[in-house]
């Protein structure tokens, strides 16, 4: 039984100045994450610029991630689409290539009703790989309410949620009304924060951890924060939360992943440019990012 608990990195996709993917750089990033003790990796999400990737590029990235993880940490592959047929296809690809789970976002732009969302996730879960639902209304235009999440959680194979609604009340309801009863029944439903700023409060409410953006740069610190909170050491967790807060804010000063990819590149790790329609970080946004990195003792190269 897959049990996701701790800090998981929503990986960036490094690129060359030519715009081609930097596969060697991606391999280096995965190795860096594992070396720093991260609990798992999440390629091909929003942070990985998946909307701009070709299918052959995605397949190569999945193969590298699975190979480098070597079964030592779980690999959760982004497999969402606003087409159910494509979401099923991408979920099956993740399964066939050896991923441990698939992260499937609420269908975006179409704005389906609750029955449409239910049938969408029912279809992807039928592939036979653990499914983590990604609830992020700010990008999809549709929030998954707690009553609907309860219904989705009863689908075999739905194993948890990346909760990025930004609503702590909703997160608490999901934990109390879904995760707690499922845990008592021996069938865990994992609730992971989709926002770095909510890692500490979500875990304090009984959640399981975070799928993090800033851990692209500081995986060991994000994992330390998650583990401190999960073990009840909230004094240490608060200390780390406030230590990381300037970076958390700076990482979202513009659309993700523009700032974090810039920071990773500045730190000397493989990052490179973003693909259109994203554009480079504006000069006005550079100062808070530089200050946040300096505050964490990260040299800019």
Structural topology:
Elements: E1 6-10, H1 23-35, E2 40-42, H2 55-69, E3 76-78, H3 84-96, E4 101-105, H4 114-125, E5 131-135, H5 137-140, H6 146-153, E6 158-163, H7 168-184, E7 190-193, H8 199-204, E8 209-212, H9 219-230, H10 234-250, H11 258-266, H12 286-295
Parallel strand pairs: 1-2, 1-8, 3-4, 4-5, 5-6, 6-7, 7-8
Helix pairs in contact: 1-2, 3-4, 6-7, 9-10, 10-12
What would the keywords be for this entry?
about 300 residues, alpha/beta, TIM Barrel, 8-stranded parallel β-sheet
Q: Could you describe the 3D structure shown?
A:
- By secondary structure, the chain is of the alpha/beta class.
- It has a single domain (6-232), classed as TIM Barrel (Alpha-Beta Barrel), CATH 3.20.20.70.
- Helix content is 45%, strand content 12%.
- It has twelve helices and eight strands.
- The chain has helices at residues 23-35, 55-69, 84-96, 114-125, 137-140, 146-153, 168-184, 199-204, 219-230, 234-250, 258-266, 286-295; strands at residues 6-10, 40-42, 76-78, 101-105, 131-135, 158-163, 190-193, 209-212.
- It has an eight-stranded parallel beta sheet with strand order 2-1-8-7-6-5-4-3.
- Strand 6 (158-163), helix 7 and strand 7 (190-193) form a beta-alpha-beta unit.
- Helix 6 (146-153) runs parallel beside helix 7 (168-184) and helix 9 (219-230) packs antiparallel against helix 10.
- The longest helix has 17 residues, at 168-184.
- It is globular and about 50 Å long.
